[in-house]
């Protein structure tokens, strides 16, 4: 626990470390979400029923790109 606190007691080093962690964490989460979306859109999602459904597939670019951008904009508007 000492390496998190920055020493034996809670003091300025502790605050500095937690502020840095608080600042960096959203960027790490955003990067992981972007990587997740990239892999999901490249490979596609799983088909649990096992029935081949190539005929009813929606192409990624016009539909899912707009859908992801709209979801991102709604999230940003909610956070403002």
Structural features, described:
By secondary structure, the protein is mostly helical. It has a domain at 1-44. Helices cover 70% and strands 0% of the residues. It is elongated. Keywords: Electron transport, Heme, Iron, Membrane, Metal-binding, Mitochondrion, Mitochondrion inner membrane, Respiratory chain, Transmembrane, Transmembrane helix, Transport, Ubiquinone. It is found in: Mitochondrion inner membrane. It holds the Pfam family Cytochrom_B_N_2. One of its GO terms (biological process) is mitochondrial electron transport, ubiquinol to cytochrome c. Residues 1-49 form the Cytochrome b/b6 N-terminal region profile domain.
Write the layout of secondary structure elements.
Blueprint: H1 2-5, H2 12-43, H3 60-79
User: Which descriptor suits the 3D outline?
Assistant: elongated
DSSP summary, beta strand count: 0
How large is the share of residues in beta strands? Answer: under 5%
Return Rg in Å. 21 Å
Helix content: over 70%
Largest sheet: none
Which regions contain 5 or more consecutive residues with pLDDT less than 50? none
Strand and helix order: HHH
Distance between the termini: 35 Å
Q: Give the helix/strand class.
A: mainly alpha
Count of alpha/pi helices: 3
